[in-house]
Amino acid sequence: MLSHDVAYFAGGLSAKLATRSRHVCTFFGAGTSKACGLPDVALLTTKILAGLEGEQLEAFKRITSSRNLEQALSRLRRVQAVVEGADVIDGLTGAQAKALDVAICKLIIQELSSAKAHLGPVDKLVAWVERADYARPVELFTVNYDCLIETALEARGVPYFDGFVGSLRARFRTDMVEATQLDSDVLLPSFYARLWKLHGSVNWAWDQTHPAGQVLRLGNPVPTNQIAAIFPSDAKYEESRRMPFVVLQDRLRRALNEPETLFLVSGYSWADEHLNELFFDAAARRPRSEFIAFCYSEIPAELAEKARKTPNLQVVTQTEAIIGGLQAPWAEPTEGIALPPDIWDGTTCQLGDFRQLAGFLARSSPAWSVEEQAGLSGLNVN
């Protein structure tokens, strides 16, 4: 029976992470924040439903009947942009849409407070980032709105750049996000980690004093009477107010297409068609790069289909993996090889759980010795 060797996989990943010439990136979805005790999008939506009342509750139910939370926020912002006076869209005037938007953002900020989270997993992640000594900066991409990673980075004193310059009312610097090795006047050193929040943040706000409505990164979560800058995704939404998101999406696209990149994906549901297309296209175009998706439970169907046809797109779950295009269960480690519990708990591979993956990364800098890897094989065929 065909099976995959978890020790060989873990040892190989450690060796790749120890290669300083690699361009290493991570991509985190809601599952990583959930591992720290915060709600994922489904639970967050439930909590918003519980926190709204009266007409706002009914309006939110209508809008989310065929949309997810981010799409609902986009819809509300589009209504605000196009409705004037007493005109109504989706049963809402422009003023009512704005009031509902503010109420939703208030509840999101309340539920995603770092004070409610346990930071152990992100602290381990940052311990790895702190020791990273790659030729190019580590890039941390996330679609989460919370500030867990920033909190952990600052607690350890790790320098990082998130696209904004300043502290209390930081402004977005497109030129610094897009800087290459040729732009020495604005390019930050590689020891600065890059943190790219693709869908916005609870501490991003619209600058009400700027006619174009620029986005600011505040020193604290957005005040309760303001709208947080969270993913204005509608293509017809005012272009100037989408600028940080467009630039950061482009940064993801360029990072994915850099040669010989190692991209680790955790906590992501693979439910966003646009993001999926970016990953799948990069895996097909860059055969020398490697993309590893760590899944907490079952492998999403589209991801499994692509991974079976794309050898450099690997998928890891508790019970099985797709490696080199072959989908097979994990085999028990070879007798005499003891693996840490964050890799193998005796019956399953644990790396699909962000809490365990972060622990693995925290000690991953040194490559496994030749002796430790001796005798390991990639596939067992019984």
TrEMBL record:
The highest taxon in the source lineage is Bacteria
Provide the protein name: SIR2 family protein
